Amino acid sequence: MEFLILHNKNNEKRQEYMTTAPVGPLIVSLALPAVASIMTTAFYNAADAYFVSQIGTSASGAVGIVFAMMAILQAIGFTLGMGAGSVISRALGAGDVQKASRYASTSFFSAMTLGAAVCLFGHISIDSLMRLLGSTPTILPYAKSYAVWILYGAPVICGAFTMNIILRSEGHAAFGMRGLVCGGFLNVALDPIFIFKFGLGISGAAMATLISQCVSFSILLSFFLRRKSDVEINIRKVSLHPKTFFDIVSLGFASFTRQGLASASAAALNIAASAYGDAAVAAMSIVGRVFFLIQAVVIGTGHGFTPVAGYAYGAGDFRRVRSAFWFTVKGEALLMALLAAASYALAPDIIALFRRGDADVIAIGTRAMRFQSLSLLLAPILVTSGMIHQSLGFAWRATLLSCTRNGICFIPLIIVLPRFIGLTGVEVTQTAADFLSFIITVPFLYFFMKMLRAKEKGAKIK
């Protein structure tokens, strides 16, 4: 009983802090660990690509193939985590801890179950899956050796992503950062040992990733088991009510479409690039890992912003929601301008870090990186607009916006452009998709902000 009283007092303090602290410093304090978490994931993906690329061009291409599969696991974790997180932050903002715990528990155990299903299906049909994701005959052996170990960790990967987002949604982004950063550094340390010292090749890189993910999962779970979180994860709190699952899936569906289409887009990109040889697949894989690292800044900042918006919206402070959004976008735009300039200028040197001496990979990768750097300034609006719709419960709009960049725009373009302009079409597709997505997103954002201003004035919005 004493614990419950203390826990409730801590929740009340957290609620007051999240709804009254100055917006700028609050978002920064939440965004920094979130950025660190996502950049760590992006960094050890890039580290995997770097160490594996030393084995050969086909092995380097295999990382891009398996990345498309890992996007499926991320889609599960993000869908259930963001869906539950949207409810959790608003429930905590309204002081309903029991509801928040119910959604947290349901999403976590659902993620573990779905991860186990992916593990089973993936091992049964691994050859077909790798070909479906764009593997060429020469890349296939490497892709299988890498994917088989990642599949063993599918439940852990899905569960870790879900827990990390739950922690962020309640304002404990620093807890999530600790878990992912520890796993990330361990991955980078184990890669060269397993790949080269133990002579395990690409399988060693996958083993290092699996061990690191298990460590991250254990650290994240410990925060809930030691009651450091504001919500509780307990199998007895899992809801069997259909509405709970519907809420989680409908609100998280934007993340599912975003990550699921990221997987589909990666596969389509691999297939389009494979027509120009393993060098093209390897180059696009390297560019993808580098830009995933760059865009982790925007995604991480957005994850720092969403709990602030959720708490404020739950508390009825709509002006605070708008202030938080524009503070986030302006900060992200400044960072993206700097990173865009750096990636454009240093493109050949960055690609050469992965495949020094491979002229074809460097040439293709340089052109693709420079094209993509041109659209980095659009990322703050594209990413943060989708996140604010999702975090505040506007499920269908968030889903539609999440479909644009990697679905509605990218997939048709990756099919059409290479037919007219060849390899250049492969290199420029992401940039073209970003510009089209921006055109679609702006009207949605305009009307959303108009709605928030009307709510501030107490107007009745139909």
TrEMBL record:
Localization per Swiss-Prot or TrEMBL: Cell membrane
Spans through the membrane: 21-44, 64-88, 108-126, 146-167, 179-196, 202-225, 292-313, 333-354, 374-396, 432-452
Task: State the UniProt keywords alphabetically.
Answer: Antibiotic resistance, Cell membrane, Membrane, Transmembrane, Transmembrane helix, Transport
- Topology in the membrane? Multi-pass membrane protein
- Give the UniProt entry's GO cellular component terms: plasma membrane
Q: What is its main location?
A: membrane
Q: Name one GO molecular function term.
A: xenobiotic transmembrane transporter activity
* Domain of life according to the entry: Bacteria
Entries under InterPro entries matching the protein: MATE_fam (IPR002528), MATE_MepA-like (IPR045070), MATE_MepA_subfamily (IPR051327), MdtK-like (IPR048279)
- GO terms classed as biological process: response to antibiotic
What family does the entry list? Answer: Belongs to the multi antimicrobial extrusion (MATE) (TC 2.A.66.1) family. MepA subfamily.
PANTHER family for this protein:
MULTIDRUG EXPORT PROTEIN MEPA, SPORULATION PROTEIN YKVU
Protein's UniProt name: Multidrug export protein MepA
Organism in which the protein naturally occurs: Synergistes jonesii
